[in-house]
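Hi P.,

Sorry for the delay on this. The queue was packed all week, but I finally got your sequence through. Input first:
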Amino acid sequence: MVKHVVAGSSEIGDGQQKRVSVAGRDICVFNVKGDFFALLDRCPHEGASLSYGFRIGLVTSSSPGCFEYSRESEMVKCPWHGWEFDIKTGQSWCAPTRVKVRPYPVNVESGNELVKGPYVAESFPVSVEGQYIVIDL
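Then the structure:
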């Protein structure tokens, strides 16, 4: 599996998301209380971009008139038709047995853990002498 660096962890604050493009796919990366998750940035209903969706929590009811709000900011609501998806798994709350958004694994790694790419730019020693910048060839 090929690793793709898509953002610095500080670029996506808690409760925020960022749309990125990886290998021709638009993916939405979510920060949920310091943990990062990624979903294909396409609602399976009619193709809306989930990166423009609203972050919501989960509302459940144990009996008529009794509602409980939990999992704050762990769900994303499609901006077109309101379909709701679990950010952590991609599971639909509108049709849970049939519909799911593709999730992608996300890791936060320090820069020195990443492998250097195959291409390295040629560099030259540079020094400042007086008021002149000097390049040694």
